[in-house]
Amino acid sequence: MKFPKQKVLITHEVNECLEREDFFGIFKMKNRILENADIIDKKILGDLIFSTFIIGNFDDAVLIYSELKRKGVETYSTLYYALLSLIANEDLFQAASIIKKSEILSAPEIKDLHQDGGANYSNLLPFADYHDSFTLLLLIVNYIKGIMRETSGMKEINRDLLLFRFFDLVNLVYEIGYPLKIIQELSSAMKIIFNLSI
C-alpha cells in the first residue's frame, strides 16, 4: 500500500490550485494523481479531468478517463468530461462507444433515462435539484444519442451541427425550468467546446 502522505500532499496541492483557478497546475500533476488513483478521493480524480477539459486538452481528458476506467474508477464527473471532450473533438462514434461500455450507464435504473422511448429531458428534471452531476451527464448522453440518431441517415457530423444542437439543448433546459446552475454549467461547457467568446 502506498504511503498515505502522498494522498494528503496531492489533495492539498489540488485544492490550492483550485482556489487560484490554476487548472494547468492541476493538469501538470496528472501522472502523480493517476499513479495514486487507488488511494486518492474520487473528487480529486474528477478535479483532474475537469481541469484538463477547462484548459482545452481534450485528448488528454479522454486518456485520463480511459486510464481511470482501466483502474476501475468511473464516476458521473469523469464520464461527463470525457464525453464533453469527445464532442469538442467531433468524435461522437467514440462517445457512443463509451456510453455503450459504461458500467454506470448500464445500470437498469439509469438505462431508462437514456434509452429510446424512455429518454427525454423532462424526465431528468426531478434529479436536477439534488444531483447535478448525474443530471448533467444524462443530458449530455441524450444529446449525443440524439445526434447519432439524427446523423444515421444523410447528414454528416460536423462542428456547425454540434453547436446548433448544443444551443438547442441549453435553450430546452431553460424552457423546461432546469435550475440556473445546470444552465450555467452547460453554457460554460459550450463556450469551451466551441471556443466561443459570448
Provide a descriptive summary of the structure in words.
The model has no long low-confidence stretch (mean pLDDT 92). This protein folds into two domains: 1-73; 94-198, no CATH class. It has helices spanning 5-20, 23-27, 30-35, 42-54, 58-70, 76-88, 92-101, 103-106, 108-111, 121-128, 132-150, 159-176, 180-193. It has 198 residues and is mainly alpha-helical. Helices cover 72% and strands 0% of the residues.
Would you summarize the structure shown here?
With 198 residues, the chain is mainly alpha-helical. It has 13 helices and no strands.
Give helix % range: over 70%
Shape: globular
Count of extended strands: 0
Number of helices in the DSSP assignment: 13
Count of all domains: 2
Overall pLDDT confidence:
92
How far apart are the termini?
Answer: 48 Å
Proportion of strand residues: under 5%
SSE string? HHHHHHHHHHHHH
Low-confidence stretches: none
The biggest beta sheet reads: none
CA radius of gyration? 17 Å
Helix-and-strand structural type: mainly alpha
